[in-house]
Each structure stands twice: as C-alpha cells, then as structure tokens.
Design a protein that fits this description.
By secondary structure, this protein is an alpha+beta fold. The chain has a single domain, classed as DD-peptidase/beta-lactamase superfamily (Beta-lactamase, 3-Layer(aba) Sandwich), CATH 3.40.710.10. Helix content is about 40%, strand content about 20%. A hairpin with a 2-residue loop joins strand 11 and strand 12. The termini are far apart.
C-alpha cells in the first residue's frame, strides 16, 4: 500500500468517526425531548365541543287552572312537573283511594262488606240499600269507578270495626304506612263535613304516590276505574252496573287508573296513572281546578309527559 492509499484510509476513518459522534449527539437530544414534559404553554391545543340540548322542556308554559298539580314518575321517584305539589288541599272523592287502599291492605279481597244504614244516608251518589253485602274487591271497584259515597262509607266502617279502631285512626294508619305526610281523612268518602272542613286533605305529590301504590298492589281494582261501566253482583244476587265519572278515560293512552273528585270546598280534582312507556307508570294529579278544567289540565299534562318521553317539546 502506497502513501496515497494510506492518506485516503485515514480520511475515511476520520469521516466515519465524525458521523458517529453526530449520531450520538442527535440521539441524546431526542431522548431529552421525549423524557422532559412540555410546559403548559407548549402543550398542544385541543378543541373540545360539548353537545347541549336546545329542545325546550315539554312542560314549559302549560296553562294549568288547578291550584296544585304534579307529574310524578312512579319508577324513578322523579317529579317531572310540579305546581304547589306539596300544598295540603281538600281531596273530595280522591279520599276514596285512601279508603280502598286501607281496606285492601288489611283484608282479603273476598271479605264480606255489609252496607250499613248510616252509609245509605250519606249524600249522593249512592247505589245501595242497607243490608246488602258485597265482596270487598267488588264493592271497591264499584265505589271507585262511580265515586259512590255509600260504598266508601261502608268500606271505611267495616275496616275500622274489624281493626277495632276509629275510622280516622284506620285511615291515618294507611297514610302513615305509605309515608303520606300531608294526607289525613275525616271520613271515608271525602265529603265536606261543613263549608269549612273537607272530608280529606292531602297534597298532589301524596296522591300521586297513593294512586301508584294502588295500581301496584291491587291492579284488578285499579283496572276497573278505566272502564266505561263496571258490574258486580251482591251476595243476595242483585246485579249492579255503574258508569265511570271520568269522561276522558278513552283519550288517555295506556291508562291504568282514574279517579275524579269534586266538592264545593275542594273544587275539581283528578288523579290518573298511565304508562308513558313500556312498564313505566306516571301519575298525574290536579287539585283545586274546576269541574271541567280538571280534565283539560290533566290532559295537557299527559300530552306534555308523552312529549317528554319522546324527546320533543310537544306532540
């Protein structure tokens, strides 16, 4: 090998050494870049978009005449709409829901109930004669559907007597068992006892829960309240057929219970339970409306509820 060859070899070796050093330095800088965290100001800017619903509530601006009202989800316990829902107001014949629930909670459905003479002396509507006897469930179906005061009085009297309690104590016990803190009854029918005292008091929220409990525990009795007419036969063989006091039962989809109430002191009351979706019962209660507007109030709340479950502002 001559001198020229040696010089070329030396130059090649020096070049390779410099390239290796450059590679090592670059690797060191890359490691530092990867291991040292960026400062907040150097962090990449990420734009996050949060979706929000702009659909108005289905319950906005509903014109409700009633002094108090509620739409209550019986599955979740959520109040979907409320107007004075905890106010204690006269119940009128919605008191019969408590009377029937109290009796059915304590006695078998076939328990014989005798119509007493005192029961036949209450204000109309009435349908029975003293001494007639019915199975509890049959008398309950007739009483709730046609809002019969004599039937409610007979049920309350028989239930209290069998428990060796006063009617007030018997009804108070049923209300306490359901934790209905705003509810108490003076009598089983809900008839006003004077121009200043109602036969029963409660809140819209309490009545929603009571109606839901009746549907859940005694669905056969509740189902009678959505029929146009209900029939039953007394123990003596007398046939009875009564008409429903609620004219809008055919307009409420998947209705499970309906109960009307009206006295001069209470005004127009209405309690409904219906399925807003598959096995999703909702209670609608209006208190202190008028004779006619209790039905338009409730219908508006039912429509808003269906729109709510459909995810729209209105149907």
């Amino acid at each position: 090998m001559n001198i020229s060859d040696l010089q070329r070899l030396a130059e090649h070796t020096r070049t390779m050494r410099e390239a290796g050093i450059t590679l090592l330095v670059a690797s060191a800088f890359l490691a530092i870049f990867l291991l040292v965290p960026l400062s907040p100001n150097d962090s990449p800017k990420v734009s996050v978009s949060i979706a929000t619903s702009t659909t108005p509530s289905a319950f906005n601006d509903i014109p409700i005449t009633a002094e108090a009202a509620i739409v209550y989800d019986l599955v979740t316990g959520e109040t979907l709409y409320a107007k004075n829902a905890d106010a204690q107001l006269p119940l009128a014949s919605l008191t019969k829901l408590l009377t029937v629930y109290a009796a059915l909670s304590e006695f078998p459905s076939k328990t014989p109930i005798v119509i007493t003479a005192s029961a036949t002396e209450v204000e109309a509507p009435r349908a029975f004669s003293a001494g007639q006897t019915f199975e509890l469930s049959d008398l309950a179906r007739l009483t709730l559907t046609a809002s019969l005061n004599d039937g409610a009085a007979a049920i309350a009297h028989a239930s209290a007597e069998r428990q060796n309690r006063s009617e007030n104590e018997m009804l108070a016990g049923a209300a306490a068992a359901l934790d209905l803190s705003q509810t108490y009854a003076v009598n089983g029918s809900g008839l006003d006892t004077s121009s200043a005292i109602s036969g029963g008091y409660g809140s819209a929220k309490d009545l929603a829960r009571l109606a839901g409990a009746l549907v859940e525990r005694f669905p056969a009795v509740a189902a009678a309240t959505i029929e146009a007419t209900v029939e039953a036969v007394s123990a003596g063989g007398t046939h009875f057929s009564v008409k429903n006091t609620d004219p809008i039962i055919d307009t409420i989809p998947r209705l499970l219970l309906s109960k009307t109430g009206y006295t001069e002191l209470a005004g127009g009351n209405l309690a409904l339970v219906f399925d807003a979706a598959m096995r999703h019962p909702i209670a609608v209660v209006v208190l202190g409306s008028s004779v006619k507007e209790r039905f338009t109030d409730a219908s508006a709340l039912v429509a808003a509820t269906l729109a709510h479950f459909a995810g729209v502002a209105s149907l």
